[in-house]
Amino acid sequence: MFPKVCVICGMSLYQKRQFICAECAQNRFEKAVTSKSDAINLPEVVTKRFALWQFDKGGYLQDLLHKLKYHRLTGVGEDLGQILGDALRKNNFIDDNEKNELVILPVPLHHSKRRKRGFNQAFYISKGMSEVLRVPILKKDVVLRIKNTKTQTGFSLTKRRENISDAFSIAQPATLTGKDILIVDDVFTTGATAFELVTELQKAKIGKIYIATVAQA
Fold this sequence. Notes:
Elements: H1 22-27, H2 38-41, E1 46-54, H3 60-70, H4 74-90, E2 101-106, H5 111-117, H6 121-133, E3 143-145, H7 157-164, E4 168-170, H8 173-176, E5 179-188, H9 192-201, E6 209-216
Parallel strand pairs: 1-6, 2-5, 5-6
Antiparallel strand pairs: 3-4
């Protein structure tokens, strides 16, 4: 009875997206620019990192991510994941000739935070990506977040690293053997969380590691 409309511009949605129209996805946000120092800052085991848009504090993108994270609009996450997945495919981010099986790993939440929030926003972004890329999502009990960390907002890089140190554990390392891993999260800021996760993943016999996020700050 009531047509679906874009939560950004209010125009009717005529495609499979639930909340974000194609026009806004294409033109509303500033494309992310990879820092020249990125290659230096990335751990050697990380093959590539990709961010879709530049984070806009107080802008449309922050509002979208808040709707996903704090208002349980999980469809926003799926839309963002589809858009991100399309961008990865268009930019040939993943090498189709790789022999290893690729799996998507949403950055895990601690069980207490997931229970309080009701969901993991990175999972719904991953869900949208999985539909586009035809890549499976790793089961949530394979890699765990065992430390209930404080929010990283406002922390220095040193403080972020201290806060996130030893936060992850691989519960089923055999499940990861011989697989390439695509780590997915909403925002890449200093990389402390992703890199701590990468450090733990290195303990398993995995292939390549990729990192993809909706935004970078």
